[in-house]
Queue: 3 jobs
Job 1
Amino acid sequence: MYNYTCLNPISQVGLNEFGDQYKVVEDLDGADAVLVRSTAMHDLDLGDTLKAIARAGAGVNNIPLEKCAEAGIVVFNTPGANANGVKELVVAGLLLASRDLMGGYNWVKENASDENIGKAVEKQKSKYAGNEVMGKKLGVIGLGAIGAKVANIGFRLGMEVYGYDPYVSVDAAWRLSSHVKHITNVEDIYKECDYITVHVPALDSTKGMINKDAFALMKDGVKILNFARDILVNDDDMIEALASGKVSKYVTDFPNAKIAGVDNVITLPHLGASTAESEDNCAVMAVQEIMEFVENGNIKNSVNYPAIDAGVCSSASRITVCHKNIPNMLTQFTGAFSSKGINVTDMVSKSRGDWAYTILDVADKADDSIVSTISAIDGVVKVRIVK
């Protein structure tokens, strides 16, 4: 029996994926796995039994990744599960940036009691005229699950699409339309595009990347969309660029006290993944990741440990080891089994930065003594008998 807890409401569609061997518990104490959306976990006591955390969404800045790695807790996210929902909102953002729909809507609402509003419309509507997106240049920075969808839909809207991502994955490349122009220098996006939309993770290298230096390269009147992370845009520089007319519209899904209410800023209350379908998709993926990990020891979509897949164990036992990525670890693991006369039938090991993960299938039934022996090896943080 495996215990899990939910720190936020999680779609029942996802929770229904759990089989009879899973039991929901009220808190972290005694839980094998955690499902979370937005709850900040940095100050929580994670407990000795916790094996996995699955974030039903892409961002994981509410989870202490290094702390979890040091405790042998594998953290998962759900990349791409909400991609379509965010893509559709970006399309809405493109139209909001191009046509003064908000201004027109507000005028109609303010004049709703005017009996002659129908006639007044004809005189007023020119104030809210805009531009069509067809034929314009769209720059997409970041071609992951969301960025690739945005680039493809931009082409279908008749836009000339430029895509930039120095780390684009093979999967993303396959998903990307051949009509998207692959750009190798982000500065070319800044110089060429009428619309720029950002879809990169929040990293030290991307924090504040849309700033005064970037604006200096852009066309006058450029329109910026940010449906990725708030810290990607320097708010002070953006306000200055809006005031000068360098940026004509800024559409963001991340309002804050500094940017909300600024002229020519359209702020939405973080609605990107707020669709029933996205929440269902994220929950299903998160639950499936947890089940595959706790039942088979395999890792997919972890953000602090490497991806690894040893399939379903056909040997007598399977042991998994979370450990530091340092020399001579595998020799010590196999030596531990050899000292007990246990044959290792299969072994897979992968590393990611400072951390590594090893799966060992063995011909004899594993017990607590082998767990103790391997746990005593310097650099090992967690050993688990999966089977």
Note: The mean pLDDT is 95.
Job 2
Amino acid sequence: MTKDKTILRALAGETLQTPPIWMMRQAGRYLPEYRATRAQAGDFLSLCYNSDLATEVTLQPIRRFGFDAAILFADILLIPQALGADLWFVTGEGPRLSTITNEADFARLGDPADVHETLGPIYQTLRNLTGVLPPETTLIGFAGAPWTVATYMTAGRGTPDQGPAHALKDTNPALFDALMDRLTLATIEYLSAQIEAGAEVIKLFDSWAGSLKGEDFDRYAIAPTKEIITALKARHPDTPIIAFPREAGEKYIGFAGKTGADCVAIDNSVSADWVAEHVQVDGCVQGNLASSHMVTGGEALARETRRIVDALSNGPHIFNLGHGITPDADPDNVQRMVDAVRGG
């Protein structure tokens, strides 16, 4: 089966004439069929926990665009909820959580080994998908990296500078380290169960890694990622893992070697030529078209897509965006991108 799954071939280090392609947030609000299914679910969290509907939205972009991978439809903040945090979504604004700001808040969190009861529907979605995906399509599971999840848990929402997390790690490092350890262990349990349910590849999203500087990057981005990957490889040695330390800049260099990741996903703040010279020399890379092209379209989209493909053509490469597709994107532009990658 692996010989027919181009993403697994790229992750194994093979340089392919045409790179495989999928897209972060490929099941989402830019698709009218997704909006219809979400309306049927009632709200975002209900959609995540409804295995049948989550299966449907995961499949929608595969049917429409024929991507080489489907990524589980879920959310990075399900882990805090499974640990006992309150989680809800405000329409048009995003997630809200109960906060961890002191020892009493932390004491209310549950044991990492107990997350599975809450997350059972997510595993069922994966089991559903293994039976209905096209045989050539790779199934990707995922989680948020501990630092990124902690930024939401300390602030109670997304923030522009992750200030509350930085403040807590600086003023109460023992508490912050305990939170990071709890999240790391819970993430290992969650991702291991995803693999057992059918995920063929795992992606670890550290969306706010770029706000960590110097030794903090090593301590809170590299070290937890390494711990998670090491544990998963011990349990599931044949499962490849993609790590995404977004906006890591120079810290992308050597990230795969320091963490054990099979592939490093790259955002679009660095050029594909730079990635080829400094990151792809260590193995597979994923990226890195600016998601704004999915809104603006035109010849610039096709030209930039081809430029990235050419720049990264001498090593293993999975084509993707540099960040998730936005709700204002035009599905026709997604098709233009796919055609440009595949030479259509």
Note: The mean pLDDT is 97.
Job 3
Amino acid sequence: MKKILYSAIAGLFALSSCNLDINDNPNYPSSENITPALQFPAAINSIADAVGSQMMIYGGFFAQYFEQMPEANQYNDIAELNIDESKDLFRRTYRSIYAGALQDLKEIDEKTTNPANRFAAAVLRAQAFQLLVDNTSETPYKEALQGNGNTTPRYDDGKTVYEGVLAELDAAQAAVADNKIDMTDPLLNKDVDQWKGYANALRLRMYMRLIDGGVDAAGYSAKAKALVEAGEFFSGDVKWDVYSPVEGQFNPFYGTKFALNANNFCAAYPIAAYMSETADPRIAYSMAPRASDKAYVGQFPGAKQGNIYNPASHKNNSVSAINVDDFKDAPIYLFTQSELQFLIAEVQYRFCNAPAAAKAAYEAAVKADFNSRGVEGASEFLAAAGSWDAAADKLELVYMQKWVALLMRNHMEAWSEIRRTDVPKLSAYTAAQINASPDLYTPGELIAPDVNYYGKGNIAMRVPYSSDSRKYNSNTPAAKMVSDKVFWDVK
């Protein structure tokens, strides 16, 4: 199955690459030779590449999972928030989503009369635009994807985009009268019910951001509650599982390391400290213990080029490496069962006044994550540091454990949830203060990067607009800094 899908994706790129015309609103001309059967895997692959490659990397730094290895330098700018449009942080993702995923999905919708195919395309389109908004807040939407008809589309505000794709999703799903209709689908085994469950999970994710962003909080709270009470969600994980441990077919995150021939990623101090403090057995899945004492030790955010460390003694073996080599053929997770169950637990606790149901969903979330990693000990963990009953702040426990569960799964969603919930919270102490007096630090708190160009003593809140958009689209808004917030981040 993996080889078939990889061949389909490669075949589409071979057909279309000579026609690729990238501008501010990337497009390529359609071809009668490119069918929905080819375009679906290509569209999914474009979204997965964005989530599992670039967002996996910068989201890993922003969520304080990753830091730059002491003896490498590839990602110093990201670690130190030294990021503006000239750094091209978002350029490849912007091109991949617009010129790849969204263009393919538009053509699928135009070519097919199959309502199930159109619905699946609408689901993927909703996720693509959600990712764009969660990165830059504003993005071309109403005027996007018009090709030569409009090469300088105006940007829409994030609220307009969110509510627009949610309305599209509702309309596309309403048109699917028969759940047994055949469809072209390499992601969810042609199961319309699974696609409806996936759509409902995306709705729930976006509803929670709208609610906490102060957008019709009562209305979206009622919708979130109704979704959870209906319980019509996907089973398993929504994951793109097409990669192989062969050069040219690697998982793109591993492929980045392979191409650079560099060991760039070590654990960040907050995640290593928290998982060590809670004796979490999942820690060995994501990072390696330090050889000298078998301890899991993270590096302070943005500290590699600061004054905390002595360069002569601070070496790669001083910290825990991220287990990148284990991800050669790992799938890319677009939505995990664990994330879904954490969202359900939050809704049950906040809106349904159902603490017992919230506990059940929370524990299901933790168990799903343990199971997905092949790690034993979930029940024991839930009886100890992960105990619902022992937690003074139930929501904080949900949010902290979601942060852990998204490690090496979906770093974009981890970063977005940190911004939405403010959990893990930011330490009141600097990296230098904590390094000098470790007892000041509460394990798991985020730490403002020691060298911090634009964060203003905080973490990254957004990414700059694509440099391609700035170059080709005169309607690109004024430049933003990483300290500027997206529309739903109002706390």
Note: DSSP finds 18 helices and six strands in the chain.
